[in-house]
């Protein structure tokens, strides 16, 4: 199936990068067979991480090419910010693209509370997600909470108790001051750039959340029974405080086979795309009310973004 007249969707999978659009599913030959784990899009540029060790770039409509090697540690996420492209890595480090090299952001390694960062299985923490909005950059460490920099990365302030176990942070560009998180503890909301928080889980069948997106005045959130992905589903609700989540059903599976993961839910305007671990991609043009499958049979989806 194709996305018909909708926007093109970049889909990162365990076996390469695809562009799903009006022409159907088109494989990106330059990255065929590579494990593509993270994507970022900003204006006329697109970036992808291949095999955890290479940063690739494509201006709109141009071929993909290698732009930089990731030094030492495996790359885990990407974030396009006003200060440039940021790359998160294993071990909870942060790099910035500088020409054809990735330079470490030293102050992030000295952030308050870093000694307590960890993973539930005992390994070092990882940088998991990055978002920028309202003059600040937000970085989510798993498990290490959320940190904010309002000075281009020169200093970082922790915003949440790390035991909330945040999986994604999102600062919607069109909503100054608003910061959202999907976490083990559910859906977290801040309206003052992360200074104070509330948790709003009404309507969810379970509070373990991995992905969050905003489509106009609607927030979408994935939730499941836990890290193994049992009873995984997608929800939507108005952004207004105190609203109740409703299950997204029309055109979606009764349950997803695994968690809808960080990076696998994206929105542009009221159009939303979702990538699943079974290689399916779904599209909604009405902020999550109705869905259609636009790709099936791909390798497990690890990230997606509107091209």
- Helix coverage percent of residues? under 10%
- Roughly how many Å is the radius of gyration? 18 Å
Q: Strand-and-helix sequence, N→C?
A: EEEEEEEEEEEHEEEEEEEEEEEEEEEEE
Regions with pLDDT < 50 over 5+ consecutive residues?
A: none
Give the topology, please.
Elements: E1 9-13, E2 16-21, E3 24-27, E4 36-42, E5 45-50, E6 54-59, E7 65-69, E8 75-81, E9 84-89, E10 93-98, E11 101-104, H1 106-109, E12 126-133, E13 136-142, E14 145-149, E15 157-158, E16 166-170, E17 179-183, E18 186-190, E19 198-199, E20 208-215, E21 218-224, E22 233-238, E23 246-247, E24 265-268, E25 271-275, E26 281-284, E27 292-295, E28 301-306
Antiparallel strand pairs: 1-2, 1-28, 2-3, 4-5, 5-6, 6-7, 8-9, 9-10, 10-11, 12-13, 13-14, 14-15, 16-17, 17-18, 18-19, 20-21, 21-22, 22-23, 24-25, 25-26, 26-27
């Amino acid at each position: 199936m194709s996305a018909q007249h909708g926007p093109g969707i970049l889909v990162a999978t365990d076996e390469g990068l695809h562009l799903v659009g009006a022409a159907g599913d088109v494989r990106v030959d330059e990255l065929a067979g590579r494990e593509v784990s993270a994507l970022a899009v900003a204006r006329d540029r697109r970036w992808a991480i291949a095999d955890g060790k290479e940063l690739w770039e494509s201006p709109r409509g141009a071929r993909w090419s290698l732009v930089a090697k990731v030094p030492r540690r495996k790359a885990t996420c990407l974030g396009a910010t006003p200060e440039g492209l940021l790359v998160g890595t294993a071990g909870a480090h942060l790099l910035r693209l500088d020409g054809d090299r990735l330079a470490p952001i030293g102050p992030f390694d000295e952030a308050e509370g870093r000694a307590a960062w960890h993973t539930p299985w005992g390994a070092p923490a990882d940088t998991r997600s990055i978002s920028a909005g309202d003059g600040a950059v937000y970085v989510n460490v798993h498990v290490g909470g959320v940190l904010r920099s309002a000075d281009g990365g020169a200093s970082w302030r922790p915003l949440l108790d790390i035991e909330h176990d945040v999986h994604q942070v999102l600062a919607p560009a069109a909503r100054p001051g608003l910061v959202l998180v999907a976490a083990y503890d559910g859906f977290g909301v801040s309206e003052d750039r992360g200074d104070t928080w509330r948790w709003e889980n009404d309507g969810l069948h379970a509070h373990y959340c991995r992905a969050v997106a905003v489509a106009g005045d609607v927030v979408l959130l994935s939730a499941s029974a836990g890290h193994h992905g049992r009873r995984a589903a997608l929800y939507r609700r108005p952004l207004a405080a105190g609203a109740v989540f409703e299950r997204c059903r029309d055109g979606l599976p009764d349950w997803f086979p695994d968690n809808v993961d960080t990076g696998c839910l994206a929105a542009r305007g009221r159009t939303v795309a979702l990538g699943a671990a079974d290689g399916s991609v779904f599209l909604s043009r009405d902020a999550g009310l109705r869905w259609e499958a636009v790709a099936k049979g791909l390798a497990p989806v690890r990230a997606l973004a509107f091209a």
